[in-house]
Design goal:
InterPro entries: SusD-like_2, TPR-like_helical_dom_sf
Oligomer: single chain
Number of strands: 4
Shape: globular
Protein name: SusD/RagB family nutrient-binding outer membrane lipoprotein
Helix content: 40-55%
Pfam family, one: SusD-like_2
Largest sheet: 2 strands, antiparallel
Keywords: Lipoprotein, Signal
Organism: Pontibacter cellulosilyticus
Strand content: under 5%
Distance between the termini: 30 Å
Length: 485
């Protein structure tokens, strides 16, 4: 896919202006680019990483493809329309941009913050920054392994010291993710020599909020292993969740996009530059069946019929102009919309699922309803009266005994609309819900993404031989417990 304007935003944030000398040392500096210094302070790296992770890792191609896979949206033009019809998905260039962002941009900068701020580093004692970097590294590695399966982790981003890193099995990557989060929690509890403050674009340097985010992510990644060890994964998830987000005020969200050409939300740029998506008929019909007030607030009428009209996934109809099918409303998508990476409502749904696996149906039902309340407030600023009426809807379970995993994942899928489709894709691969993703005129989505051409070209000796049609039939480890390395 073509490069996006968000890359200009990343470079602008990270740009370090230099100056040339005016003495005899000038000749020694001819081959040195002053705008690309070899040594950059943590204070300059922190804004870059707290913007690049939500934007370059969370917010672009990976999310756009996942959105049509989970039928939040339907592809109505170009690459997304092809992907929705299962064409071109084995192309090794599909997610080159995301892979390069992770391994050439994000992880090297995070590793540098950790190195500089830790014991023996040039900015030793910057423990808040080190803790932040470890949380973001864990998050980034999770995205990589959930997208591809085995990925470079223990040997990743070592620069010239290791140009051909080995790939770690997914179970090993998940162990590293949990270790990183444990280390982050310990680092964030230390007395830090400095605080990033406004250099941290996510939590403004709050060690307490980063700590709650780390525990919440631990709960997410423990729960991801529900098919590996249902009981232990549930207990571990609940233990971590108890120390996680206490309310929506703790949400792990980037909220610094601006209405400028290089500072807009990446989904807003996609809509204006490409407009490859329309809201899926599956999303529209699901909310209609639940009499969900979020439908009118989040989905706009299509101009031509004048009513909300979802696009069928796999459609042959091109609607780049968004005339025939509905798009999201400006309340959902604006230049400065937030980019959620994990939210309190997701955590409550995780708790609901974990309690349900352990047979604690009452606790599961309480967490499920709290997840709905938090999601409706976050997504449409719903009133208490509207939420109460929705929860009383006969289309929703009205007792703990009636609650099912499908109920939980359906509401979680609605809460992930519009900006967290990759997490919905992870849930579908793990639980087979929403069930309609398999029960459709088109074939099911792939079970993973193809390894990128850039890595095949540079590191073919280590890239696992998982490509072609195998991406449709070869589950990743946490789906079926079968390792590939």
């Amino acid at each position: 896919m073509k490069k996006n304007k968000f890359m200009s935003f990343i470079l602008a944030v990270g740009l370090v202006l230099g100056s040339s000398a005016c003495d005899e040392d000038t000749l020694d500096e001819i081959d040195t680019n002053p705008n690309n210094p070899e040594d950059v302070s943590i204070s300059l790296l922190m804004p870059q990483v707290t913007m690049a992770v939500p934007t370059a890792v969370t917010g672009v191609d990976l999310a756009w493809y996942s959105s049509v896979f989970v039928q939040h949206t339907a592809g109505v033009h170009a690459q997304m329309q092809d992907a929705d019809r299962r064409s071109g998905l084995t192309d090794a260039t599909l997610l080159n941009n995301v892979w390069v962002s992770i391994y050439a941009l994000v992880l090297p900068d995070l590793n540098e913050i950790i190195r500089k701020g830790s014991e023996g580093g040039s900015e030793e004692g910057s423990w808040t920054q080190v803790g932040i970097a470890k949380v973001l590294k864990a998050y980034t590695l999770s995205v990589a392994t959930d997208a591809w399966g085995p990925v470079p982790a223990s040997q990743a981003s070592q620069g010239i010291e290791n140009r051909k890193p080995g790939f770690d099995a997914q179970q090993a990557v998940y162990n590293q993710i949990q270790s990183l989060l444990d280390e982050a929690i310990a680092d964030l509890a230390k007395q830090s020599a400095t605080n990033p403050g406004g250099q941290d674009f996510i939590y403004g340097g709050s060690a307490a909020k980063w700590t709650r985010a780390a525990y919440s992510l631990k709960a997410r990644y423990y729960n991801r292993l529900s098919n590996i060890n249902p009981q232990e994964s549930a207990r571990n998830a609940l233990d971590a969740a108890a120390k996680g987000f206490q309310s929506s005020a703790d949400n792990f969200t980037f909220n610094m996009y601006v209405a400028s050409a290089i500072g807009e939300h990446p989904w807003f740029q996609e809509k204006n530059d490409r407009s490859h998506h329309a809201v899926s008929v599956s999303f529209v019909q699901t909310l209609q069946s639940l009499n969900d007030p979020r439908l009118q607030a989040m989905v706009a009428p299509a101009p031509t019929p004048g009513v909300i009209t979802g696009a069928p996934n796999g459609t042959l109809t091109n609607d780049q102009a968004n005339k025939l099918f509905s798009d999201v409303t400006p309340a959902v998508l604006a230049p400065n919309s937030p980019m959620p990476m994990m939210t309190y409502d997701e955590l409550k749904f995780i708790e609901a699922e974990a309690h349900l696996r352990l047979g604690a149906t009452g606790a599961a039902f309480t967490a499920y309803q709290e997840g709905i309340r938090a999601a409706m407030r976050r997504q449409i600023n719903a009133t208490d009266a509207a939420i109460t009426a929705y929860l009383a809807n006969a289309a929703l379970p009205q007792s703990a005994g009636a609650l099912s995993l499908e109920n939980i994942i359906r509401q979680k899928w609605i809460a992930f609309f519009y900006f967290q489709p990759f997490e919905a894709y992870n849930d579908w691969r793990r639980t087979d819900f929403p069930a309609f993703i398999d029960d459709h005129q088109i074939s099911p989505p792939p079970l993973r993404f193809p390894y990128p051409q850039s890595e095949l070209d540079a590191n073919i000796e280590n890239v696992p031989d998982i490509g072609g049609v195998q991406i449709f039939s070869n589950p990743i480890w946490w789906m079926d417990g079968v390792e590939e390395l």
